[in-house]
């Protein structure tokens, strides 16, 4: 009974860990989406129960408010509301016991609220000066819910479509998507960037049309760079720029004034290249850079500015390390272009997953502006670095300004790693952390931490290998030399032989019985031996960028594969393998000659699939059986339609159908309630069908 109960539980919090907040508090807090507000208020038109605790209490004053209705409503979000008070030396100390105790009391009240499908937020009320002020505010837990009628509208009646009935599910907010785009466009309209005539033209237009119109306007403005130096501007112009940036700061709040403080402490930083993470909560910090620059323009050492948004609306699955893009640069003296760039870069991006392409942005900026003396990275302490493996290519110190840093939580391990290997530093609100005492190993990992000035956060920045289930307690050396690996064949777990001009598959690999990750990408392989079936423990296989035109029959024996990359080969079929791909989570077959995906439905655990640049003409009707699929790229194929069963992919978030021959989408697409982005560029879709699609998918960012 206990085994079964734990196996199927969907709990978000491990309740035993709540009993030890000193040890587990930072990790528990990291599971929340943190937001800051002046004062917590109810969103009009929404339903919520307010369970008041008091400033430092975890007992509910009126728990019956929830117990009276819990069996008749559908909860979907939980907010824990408290105040950023008291603040000592400009820092607020997180009270983990209070957070954990409130969760314990909540789950004692209603255990069903410990749900992984809910949105979980901590809301900190700010700008509080005294006890009298803080005692007037609400502190406690807010449970957001939908009424039966609202839930019924969300879960439209099942019809004759041959898809198994879905159980009632709740929405889970994700970074980016339609809501972020709505907010971005609304904010841009409030700023003095658009003329009244453009604002009037935007009225009553669909969101995707508004986005395109604003993009074209901003791009046009940016093509007119100013040659006037900031120091040569008139006092009136300087004052006008200050008003613009002040307005931007009001509309884009931030946690602290770390950028201002650090720049004030370091007047010796001259000819500086500043690289800004320009996503989500980082807008306010990036604006601090320009605000400080304008207010100190006669002595400012900032010379170049780069903004990066992690991919210009790329799907997560299509983001390639070192080629993610979304990187924009400008001379720091050209304030008019910077203000337009602020909005263009954020409207061109749409969030996606949290990790960012910091290193690619730094390397590209150095290439664009070689005449600099300092590299300053404005970095999000809550975001890992997607391309940390490229950090060793940086050949100069990186000054990392750590935004959102809380002493009790610690520094993002990727940022500490970057500062260490580049001989740079970490800069917080009150500290300059240089000559960092730690040892690194592997890619972005910290081996030995000896620096007492700060701690390392528990943010899970270490890439989770697909094979970690069986080998969580081991650290594996990656062998890059075949002879060395063969000499240690019994110890080899990871073998990376990419870009070594290998023409014939090295059969000695089969002697490495413990091998779980094999990379043979970017070689000259024409075929694989049938004996590859001996690698029965293999979980990660990369054969991309070779010349393979078929797979051996023994390939079906690789039944424990979880990550398979066969992109950029000459394969015409792989369907025979699908029958053994039960554990496969990610597959990349892009840039091949595949015409059929028959049997695809057998990949029951598939989450990410890229079949772009092939000859696929249709999808199997059973495609709806891929119940865990999150991202699907079918761009640049020969699809004429999607099967009616496609609407059964209820977990799908990203769908790319660019450059096919699709004239219309099947009915019932509204069932894809988690869909966030849909790319239909390059398909012969008429205006009436576009309007129908927009109507059926009102919360999806659609590109035609």
Describe the structure.
- With 704 residues, the protein is an alpha/beta fold.
- It folds into three domains: 2-154, 2-Layer Sandwich (60s Ribosomal Protein L30, Chain: A); 225-449, Rossmann fold; 537-703, Ribonuclease Inhibitor (Leucine-rich repeat, LRR (right-handed beta-alpha superhelix)).
- Helix content is 26%, strand content 17%.
- An eleven-stranded parallel β-sheet has the order 17-18-19-20-21-22-23-24-25-26-27. A seven-stranded mixed β-sheet has the order 10-9-8-11-12-13-14, with helices on both faces. The chain has a five-stranded mixed β-sheet with strand order 1-6-3-7-2.
- Helix 3 (21-29) packs across helix 5.
- It is globular, with a radius of gyration of 27 Å.
- It starts with a helix and ends with a strand.
């Amino acid at each position: 009974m206990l085994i079964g109960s734990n196996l199927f539980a969907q709990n978000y919090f491990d309740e035993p860990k709540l009993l030890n907040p000193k040890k587990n508090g930072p990790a528990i807090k990291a599971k929340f989406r943190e937001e800051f507000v002046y004062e917590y208020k109810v969103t009009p038109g929404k339903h919520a129960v307010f369970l008041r605790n008091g400033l430092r209490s975890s007992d509910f004053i009126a728990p019956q408010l929830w117990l009276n209705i819990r069996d008749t409503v559908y909860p979907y979000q939980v907010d824990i509301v408290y105040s950023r008070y008291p603040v000592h030396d400009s820092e607020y100390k997180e009270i983990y016991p209070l957070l954990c105790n409130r969760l314990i009391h909540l789950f004692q009240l209603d255990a069903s609220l410990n749900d992984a499908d809910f949105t979980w937020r901590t809301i900190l009320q700010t700008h509080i000066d005294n006890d009298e002020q803080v005692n007037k505010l609400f502190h406690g837990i807010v449970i957001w819910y939908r009424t039966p009628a609202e839930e019924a509208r969300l879960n439209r009646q099942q019809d004759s479509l041959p898809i198994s009935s879905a159980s009632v599910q709740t929405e889970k907010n994700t970074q980016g998507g339609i809501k972020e785009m709505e907010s971005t466009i609304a904010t841009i309209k409030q700023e003095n960037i658009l003329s009244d005539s453009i604002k009037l033209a935007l009225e009553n237009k669909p969101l995707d049309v508004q986005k395109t119109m604003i993009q074209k306007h901003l791009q046009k403005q940016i093509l007119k760079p100013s040659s006037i130096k900031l120091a040569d501007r008139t006092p009136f112009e300087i004052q006008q720029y200050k008003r613009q940036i002040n307005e931007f700061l009001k509309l884009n709040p931030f946690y602290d004034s770390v950028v201002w403080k650090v720049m004030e402490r370091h007047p010796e930083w001259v000819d500086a290249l500043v690289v800004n993470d320009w996503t989500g909560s980082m807008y306010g910090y990036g604006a601090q850079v320009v605000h400080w620059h304008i207010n100190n323009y006669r002595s400012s050492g900032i010379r170049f500015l780069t903004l990066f948004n992690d991919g210009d609306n790329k799907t997560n699955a299509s983001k390639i390390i070192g080629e993610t893009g979304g990187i924009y640069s400008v001379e720091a003296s050209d304030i008019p272009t910077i203000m337009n760039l602020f909005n263009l870069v954020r409207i061109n991006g749409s969030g996606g997953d949290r990790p960012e392409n910091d290193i690619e942005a730094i390397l590209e900026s150095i290439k664009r502006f070689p005449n600099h003396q300092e590299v300053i990275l404005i970095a999000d302490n809550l975001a890992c670095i997607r391309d940390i493996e490229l950090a060793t290519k940086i050949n100069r110190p990186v000054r990392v300004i750590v935004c959102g840093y809380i002493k009790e939580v610690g520094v993002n391990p990727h940022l500490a790693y970057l500062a260490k290997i580049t001989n740079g530093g970490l800069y917080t609100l009150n500290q300059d952390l240089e000559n960092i005492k730690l040892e690194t190993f592997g890619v972005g990992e910290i081996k030995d931490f000896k620096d007492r000035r700060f701690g390392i956060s528990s943010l899970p920045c270490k890439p989770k290998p697909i094979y970690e289930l069986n080998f969580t307690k081991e650290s594996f050396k990656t062998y890059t030399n075949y002879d060395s690996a063969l000499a240690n064949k019994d110890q080899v777990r990871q073998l990376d032989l990419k870009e070594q001009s290998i023409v014939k598959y090295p059969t000695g690999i089969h002697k490495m019985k413990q091998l779980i990750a094999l990379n043979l990408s970017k070689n000259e392989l024409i075929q694989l031996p049938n004996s590859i079936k001996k690698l029965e423990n293999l979980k990660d296989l990369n054969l991309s960028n070779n010349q393979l035109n078929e797979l051996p029959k023994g390939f079906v024996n690789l039944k424990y594969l979880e990550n398979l990359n066969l992109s950029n080969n000459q394969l015409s079929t792989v369907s025979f393998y699908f029958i053994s791909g039960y554990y496969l989570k990610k597959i990349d077959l892009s840039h091949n000659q595949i015409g059929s995906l028959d049997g695809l439905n057998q990949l029951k655990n598939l989450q990410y699939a890229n079949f772009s640049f092939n000859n696929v003409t249709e999808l199997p009707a059973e495609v709806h059986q891929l119940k865990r699929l999150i991202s699907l790229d079918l761009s640049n194929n020969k699809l004429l339609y999607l099967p009616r069963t496609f609407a059964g992919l209820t977990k799908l978030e990203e769908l790319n159908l660019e450059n096919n021959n699709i004239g219309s989408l099947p009915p019932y697409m509204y069932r894809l309630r988690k869909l966030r982005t849909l790319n239909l560029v390059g398909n012969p879709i008429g205006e009436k069908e576009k309007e129908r699609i927009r109507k059926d998918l009102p919360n999806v960012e659609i590109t035609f």
